[in-house]
Amino acid sequence: MNGKSGQPRSLPWTAHVITLFPEMFPGPLGTSLAGRALEQGIWRLLPVALRDFGRGPHRNVDDTPAGGGPGMILRADVMADAIDSIGAGNPEFTGPFVALSPRGRPLNQEMVRKFADSDGLALICGRFEGIDERVLGRRDIEEVSIGDYVLSGGEPAAMVLIDAVVRLLPGVVGDAAVLEDESFEAGLLEYPQYTRPPVWEGEAIPDVLLSGHHKRIGAWRQARAEELTRRRRPDMWRRYRTGGKEFKD
Length: 249
Description:
Layout: E1 13-19, H1 32-39, E2 43-49, E3 62-63, E4 73-74, H2 76-89, E5 97-106, H3 109-117, E6 120-125, H4 133-138, E7 142-145, H5 155-166, H6 177-180, E8 199-200, E9 203-204, H7 214-232, H8 234-241
Parallel strand pairs: 1-2, 1-6, 5-6, 5-7
Antiparallel strand pairs: 3-4, 8-9
């Protein structure tokens, strides 16, 4: 099992998840590929209950926004204690720490591969109107978004990110070649796929795919991937055409 720079990991890839609702985990991550990999010890899931670090007899974790406004904000001191507990309990873990937030950097496959090459992640699931800005800065928290929409909390987003990472870990997907042809791996959307029956509702599988001519099949798939990307994701197409130069920081 490899980690940074291809070096063997001393422990399985680990997802620490700071959440008000630890009972939501593993949820979907306990089934299918991720679930089997979890049972096999390829990765570990360690929920951290934010309420355990709350203040007062009711273990409060939030308070009203400074300056007024609706909703509640997760307190910096409470969140910092939860974050610091991960390092205290796991001295080998060095991060990164990631908060799921609609204002974060959009998650993409390049980021997923980077996270898969790390020893693990500490994910922070926000709730209410957000997290006190001070803890994000003082604890060097990276903010990541899974899309331009708002969820009730960061837990579903954390599951999406973990699932995307886990399937890249060695031993999770049986045929590693499957990963190479997927959408985003080569900077393009995946080409169309077909299987039996050869004719369905009057529409036939393209002849080239039944030809057995691997070079022609490869060229057809490349052309279709480029066509789909150009039509559906012009942003990706521009990046593909420029070698990513338009999107570099």
